[in-house]
């Protein structure tokens, strides 16, 4: 798409969005006290909305924030926000681990496949879904991009859907497109997607990873998580052949 076409497409979706296109402050003000808030996860964490969610001027109190692993900052778990937010971790990441350990946040151990039903039955209630999406296409559809898994169930269950429209969010295909008619507030905020970068592990981690790699035969199917050991195992598999992958994430 040329620069001119990009500008024309953006102008069209902004015009089509009408009153739904608003400032982040206005969108956050639509949240009612005490509501349960879902944040999209991974590299699709709506980082552009978080400063407004945590702003001193935001009229928020007694909220529970639910999400899986998010990349980037999680300011709502800081001690200063203890009276405004309580985080319920469905996956404990490094940005919320200390809060869980110190009792400022909770952890719900649960299988990923069970979470959508918990949302839909309101055993884990979701009142507000804040998601990061691609810009709308010519037909008014946005993509949930790099984070799908439980996000559709959260959007379906919420009374209020706030979408951070990020032009750097890629459009991914599948049954997870949202029409702007399903969204109550669109906030245009661009930023690079956060990344989980691989690092060289400590010597003992590298030794463990090397030993694990030696146990993996050619033709094996891999399930890989996040962390120094999975990353290290991958580095020692470069001479393996015919490996398969069956995993909800890739190290």
Description of the molecule:
Strand 10, helix 8 (228-235) and strand 11 form a beta-alpha-beta unit. With 251 residues, this protein is an alpha/beta fold. The strands form 3 sheets. Strands 4-3-2-1-5-7-9 form a 7-stranded parallel β-sheet. It has a two-stranded antiparallel sheet with strand order 6-8. A two-stranded parallel sheet has the order 10-11. The mean pLDDT is 90. Helix 7 packs across helix 8. It is built from 8 helices and 11 strands.
Number of beta-strand segments: 11
* Mean pLDDT across all amino acids: 90
What pattern of helices and strands is seen along the backbone?
Answer: HHEHEEHEHEEHEEEHEHE
Radius of gyration: 20 Å
Assign a percent range to the helix content.
Answer: 25-40%
Strand order of the largest sheet: 4-3-2-1-5-7-9
Low-confidence stretches: none
Give me the number of helical elements: 8
What gap, in angstroms, lies between the N and C termini?
32 Å
Largest sheet: 7 strands, parallel
SS-based structural class?
alpha/beta
CATH superfamily of the largest domain: Glutaconate Coenzyme A-transferase
Please write the CATH class name of the largest domain: Alpha Beta
Number of domains: 2
Query: Which architecture name of the largest domain does CATH use?
Result: 3-Layer(aba) Sandwich
Strand content: 15-25%
> Which fold name corresponds to the CATH topology of the largest domain?
Glutaconate Coenzyme A-transferase
Structural shape: globular
């Amino acid at each position: 798409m040329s620069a001119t076409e990009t500008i024309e497409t953006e102008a069209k979706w902004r015009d089509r969005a009408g009153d739904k296109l608003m400032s982040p402050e206005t969108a956050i003000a639509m949240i009612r006290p005490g509501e349960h808030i879902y944040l999209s996860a991974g590299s699709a964490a709506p980082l552009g909305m978080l400063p407004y969610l945590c702003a001193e001027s935001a009229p928020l109190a007694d909220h529970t924030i639910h999400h899986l692993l998010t990349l980037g900052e999680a300011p709502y778990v800081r001690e200063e926000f203890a009276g405004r937010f309580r985080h319920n971790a469905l996956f404990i990441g490094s940005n919320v681990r200390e809060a869980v350990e110190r009792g400022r946040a909770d952890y719900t151990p649960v299988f990923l496949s069970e979470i959508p039903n918990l949302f839909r039955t309101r055993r884990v209630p979701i009142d507000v879904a804040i998601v990061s999406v691609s810009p709308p296409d010519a037909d008014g559809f946005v993509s949930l991009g790099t984070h799908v898994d439980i996000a559709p169930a959260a959007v379906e269950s919420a009374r209020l859907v706030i979408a951070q429209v990020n032009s750097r969010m890629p459009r991914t295909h599948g049954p997870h497109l949202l029409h702007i008619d399903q969204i109550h507030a669109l906030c245009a905020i661009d930023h690079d997607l956060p990344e989980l970068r691989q690092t060289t592990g400590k010597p003992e981690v590298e030794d463990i990873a090397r030993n694990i790699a030696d146990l993996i035969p050619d033709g094996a199917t891999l399930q890989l998580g996040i962390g120094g050991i999975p990353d290290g195992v991958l580095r020692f598999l470069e001479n393996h052949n015919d490996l398969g992958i069956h995993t909800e994430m890739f190290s």
